[in-house]
Design goal:
Length: 448
């Protein structure tokens, strides 16, 4: 059986290069060449012509057969196109009026080739019985998502669109919900709601209650109809399940772990079936690469309609490989950028738990206190830090807010570590100004 050639269109490659290299085509070339890749062309001679064309656009030299030939000769590439005769033959195809159509054709073929190449690699990995099938699936999902993202055109627009939008009385926000989740604390929900389409950073030292607040965000968001995905790289799945049950049934995690709960607690959880059906949990191994986490999030969003992701915690994500001279902070920065891209791409809320430095204990943290990288602070739309004041109160400071409101505001919170609940110690809601009574805890009340 004759092997079928990969998807390609050599005629379209020639016609596109001829059109972009024609006299007076500088405007079209300047617009289209930056979005083209060598891999869009299958013929090696066409690839080197593309790179010569790209170099001429950067230097501002007039594009012609002669200038392209000189550029190729300067880099020892003229023989790859067959000299002046070969170059003239390649650029002798018929010009087209809409080169954008040819770009779409070539890039569609390139994406098909990428899918076929990765599918072949996945097939070979699947044949290897020592390779983890879950890892193969996650890697495949991540690669397919990358190919899909690379195929999207990022088009500019005229400023006249401002008037068009205003004339139609359309709101200046992207489609879909603006709120990505709920804190379950009135003062925070009113002043700094968890946004959709970007991520929120929640930072604290261990033992302050980060994961407890994550538990509260998960359940209170689900209670309000948001589909939630909890990803924990620190706690076992049963422990996370116990924390969620503790919040729902108002019983301590310790009692749940002992099995020391009553029918009334079961009934309390059963009456909240509408909340239970809105949430999902994955306990992932520490050090798991971000690519696998991203693939899992995209799978959960496509299969279950996830609208809010809660990730505990940032420093346990596997660092991507870094080149010589790069640092771990750089590697974590790449992960932070990817989290922002996923939040925007899927239009979801995303809360990221981050560890703060050891000397941030018992004092008000700053943005420089992030233990592994300051990028989650730079990339986040909302940043909230927790700490315990010397008088025992839990404080929360809003360090960053996407619209600038209430930045620098400090909130006093009452934390019931026994049942994973936070509430305003001093209610600052527009609905009430009644102070809450603080409670005192014994060490055994804190969750294990």
């Amino acid at each position: 059986m004759t092997k079928k050639p990969p998807p390609q269109d050599v005629g379209a490659e020639r016609a596109l290069l001829t059109t972009l290299c024609a006299p007076g085509a500088e405007e079209a070339a300047a617009r289209l060449v930056p979005g083209l890749q060598r891999e869009d062309f299958m013929v090696p001679a066409h690839q080197v012509i593309l790179e010569a064309l790209r170099a001429l656009l950067k230097t501002g030299i007039e594009i012609s057969l002669v200038s392209i030939l000189h550029e190729l000769e300067a880099h020892g590439q003229a023989n790859r196109v067959g000299g002046v005769a070969g170059l003239a033959d390649i650029l002798g195809a018929e010009e087209v009026a809409r080169p954008e159509v040819l770009v779409d054709i070539l890039q569609a073929h390139r994406r098909r080739r990428e899918v076929m190449r990765w599918a072949h690699q996945a097939y070979l990995r699947a044949e290897d019985t020592t390779d983890d099938p879950e890892g193969i699936l996650h890697d495949t999902q991540a690669e397919m998502a990358r190919i899909s993202r690379d195929g999207r055109r990022d088009e500019g627009e005229s400023w006249e669109e401002i008037l068009v939008q205003m004339a139609a009385h359309q709101p200046f926000r992207r489609p879909g919900p603006e709120r990505g989740g709920w804190w379950g604390i009135p003062s925070l929900d009113e002043t700094c709601p968890i946004p959709a389409g970007e991520f929120t950073t929640l930072g604290a030292r261990p033992g302050i209650g980060k994961t407890a607040l994550l538990t509260q965000i998960a359940i209170e968001s689900a209670r309000r109809g948001i589909k939630v995905l909890v990803l924990t790289l620190e706690l076992p799945k049963l422990t996370m399940r116990a924390r969620l049950a503790s919040y729902l049934a108002h019983i301590s995690v310790t009692a749940l772990k002992r099995g020391d709960y009553q029918s009334s607690h079961i009934d309390a959880v059963g009456l909240q079936a509408n909340v239970l059906e809105m949430g999902r949990t994955h306990a992932l191994p520490a050090g798991i690469p971000w690519a696998k986490i991203e693939a899992l999030i995209r799978f959960e969003q496509a299969r279950h309609g996830i609208e809010l992701v809660l990730l505990d915690q940032f420093d346990k994500i596997g660092r991507p490989p870094v080149g010589r001279g790069s640092s771990e902070a750089y590697a974590f920065g790449a992960v932070s950028t990817s989290i922002l891209e996923v939040s925007k791409d899927l239009g979801i809320g995303f809360v990221l738990l981050c560890q703060l430095k050891g000397d941030a204990q018992d004092r008000e943290p700053t943005l420089s206190d992030h233990a592994d990288s300051d990028r989650p602070a730079k990339d986040a739309g909302v940043i909230l830090h927790l700490w315990r004041a010397k008088n025992g109160e839990v404080k929360a400071k809003l360090h960053k807010h996407r619209d600038g409101s209430y930045v620098g505001k400090v909130f006093s919170l009452d934390f019931d570590g026994r049942t994973q609940h936070f509430r305003d110690l001093v209610q600052e809601s527009s609905l009430t100004s009644q102070p809450a009574q603080p409670r005192l805890y014994k060490p055994e009340d804190m969750p294990l």
